[in-house]
């Protein structure tokens, strides 16, 4: 697995890179072609907390985890455990979904445009390519990236939909026609 490092208010030293690479190499066994996968690692510091955020986009799904801890090495261990748990939890669902289907692409475009420092302006923008999917697959994708909502092209309703997690752990959907 290739790893792209970025530090926010911290210099990513070779020792940190080596430790993160060693821990993330545990994920290689879950991928058929680990050499073709790039993991994006963002390490940031705020007060005493050190946060590590790992995003692993693949051709079929995206894994994402973020952990904060006072010790960066402990945070790295924890984020690797979270990613492994996500893979194991969703392994059967992913295999079942993609076993008989043609290769379906799910790509995020990670080019982010930064705005000015004004609070009333948009400071971050993400562009994504949406593929048509049903609601069950949208729930799966949302749980893999560990977000509370997910925007997708709804196959059933033939529109753009937003699926979101409610406070009672059920799901809601908004259709834009």
Provide structural commentary.
This protein has 177 residues and is an alpha+beta fold. It has helices at 14-24, 72-99, 135-145, and strands at 2-8, 38-46, 49-57, 62-69, 108-109, 127-128, 132-133, 149-154, 159-165, 171-176. The chain has two domains: 2-99, Double Stranded RNA Binding Domain, CATH 3.30.160; 132-177, 2-Layer Sandwich (SHC Adaptor Protein). It is built from three helices and ten strands. The strands form three sheets. The protein has a four-stranded mixed beta sheet. Strands 7-8-9-10 form a four-stranded mixed beta sheet. Helix 1 (14-24) runs parallel beside helix 2.
Summarize the model shown.
This protein has helices at residues 14-24, 72-99, 135-145; strands at 2-8, 38-46, 49-57, 62-69, 108-109, 127-128, 132-133, 149-154, 159-165, 171-176. The chain is α+β, with helices and mostly antiparallel strands and 177 residues long.
Q: Features of this protein?
A:
single chain; alpha+beta; Double Stranded RNA Binding Domain; SHC Adaptor Protein; 2 domains; four-stranded mixed sheet; 3 helices; 10 strands
Cα-to-Cα separation, first versus last residue: 40 Å
CATH architecture of the largest domain: 2-Layer Sandwich
- What is the typical, i.e. mean, pLDDT? 80
CATH topology of the largest domain: Double Stranded RNA Binding Domain
Q: Could you estimate the helical fraction of the residues in percent?
A: 25-40%
The unreliable regions are 101-117
Shape: globular
CATH class category of the largest domain: Alpha Beta
Annotation, overall tally of beta strands: 10
Task: Give the tally of structural domains.
Answer: 2
Strand/helix succession: EHEEEHEEEHEEE
Number of contiguous helices: 3
Strand order of the largest sheet: 1-2-3-4
Largest sheet: 4 strands, mixed
């Amino acid at each position: 697995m290739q790893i792209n490092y970025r530090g926010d208010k911290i210099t990513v030293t070779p020792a940190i890179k080596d430790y993160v690479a060693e821990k993330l190499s545990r994920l290689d066994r879950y991928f058929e072609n680990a050499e073709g996968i790039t993991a994006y690692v963002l390490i940031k510091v705020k007060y005493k907390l050190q946060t590590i955020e790992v995003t692993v986009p693949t051709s079929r799904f995206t894994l994402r985890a973020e952990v904060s801890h006072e010790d960066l090495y402990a945070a790295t261990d924890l984020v690797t455990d979270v990613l492994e748990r996500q893979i194991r939890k969703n392994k059967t669902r992913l295999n079942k979904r993609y076993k008989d289907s043609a290769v379906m692409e799910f790509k995020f475009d990670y080019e982010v445009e930064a705005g000015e420092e004004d609070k009333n302006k948009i400071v971050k923008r993400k562009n994504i390519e949406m593929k048509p999917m049903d609601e069950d697959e949208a729930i799966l994708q949302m749980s893999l990236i560990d977000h509370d909502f997910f925007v997708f092209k709804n196959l059933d309703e033939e529109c753009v939909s937003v699926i979101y997690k409610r406070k009672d752990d059920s799901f809601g959907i908004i259709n834009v026609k």
